[in-house]
Amino acid sequence: MFNNRALVIVIVLGILAWVGSASLYTINETERGIKLRFGEIVENDIQPGLHFKWPILNTVRIFDTRVLSVDASATRYLTSDSKAVIVDSFVKWQIIDPGLYYEATRGNEQAAERLIAPRTDEALRNKFGQTTLTQIVRERPATQSDNQDVVKKVREENSDVATERDELMVDPISQLDQAMRQELGVRILDIRVKRIELPSEVTQAVYERMNSQREQAARGYRAEGTRQAEEIMADADRQRQELLASGRQIAETTRGEGDAAAAAIYSAAYQQNAGFFDFYRTLQAYRESFKGNDDLMVLSPASNQFLQLFKQGNGETSSPAAP
């Protein structure tokens, strides 16, 4: 009897232990859960902590609510100016409604990614189709001009995302976030573009056009430099001519003043002793005339006044007056 009672107690304790372990469950801080009864959701968005469920009747599905990523493949889009670009992007998303998420995907993360990827592609295709290539490649911080309320709402909800984002992504984020909340019970935190490239068939054409533009700009700079150099040289030549003309004018004026002063001195000296002045000037004329070895002059002393001193040497005339 004692053995039977002990066996019963052990069995009862085992059943109680199983019921306790099957009835209690915990949810971590990074998780949310739903409670099902025969596949039907009876409790949604179960918060972190210790919870109770009925064994066999209830089952619990727990989902990771941390930020997840969908890495989209590089896709070709056409811009509003009919330019093709290849965009490589990824999406950050997070579960906010575990019940709706379970109904849409049966809790399969890959199924959720397969639903998010095409909607992301559609949103990006629409946005790139409304944007020119220049606006796409130009880097600028996000503004709140056209989508102030949307940007503010997204930034408030996504505090872990950078406070500045590319304005190009604001519309796709808001559109995709609204759709995914209703369809999957997830929110879209961010769409990031890893790279934007031109297709290989147009890269060479773009490079040649850019090279042509740079060459045209270089020719313009060279022409402008040549024009400025010619202007500088012309101005320098004009200043040179002006300086030379001014110097010649000053020189001629100084020379004229010197000649005038010399003439005045000669005149004053002549007036003091006219005979000696004539004698001195005649000697200077002789020196200039006979300084060469090959000079030959045929003159008649009797008829030429230039040789009057030679006549005086023969006693024909008197010597000049003493000073």
TrEMBL record:
HflC and HflK could regulate a protease. This is Protein HflC. Keywords: Hydrolase, Membrane, Protease, Transmembrane, Transmembrane helix. InterPro entries: Band_7, Band_7/SPFH_dom_sf, HflC. Belongs to the band 7/mec-2 family. HflC subfamily. The keyword Chaperone does not apply. Residues 22-210 form the Band domain. GO terms for biological process: proteolysis.
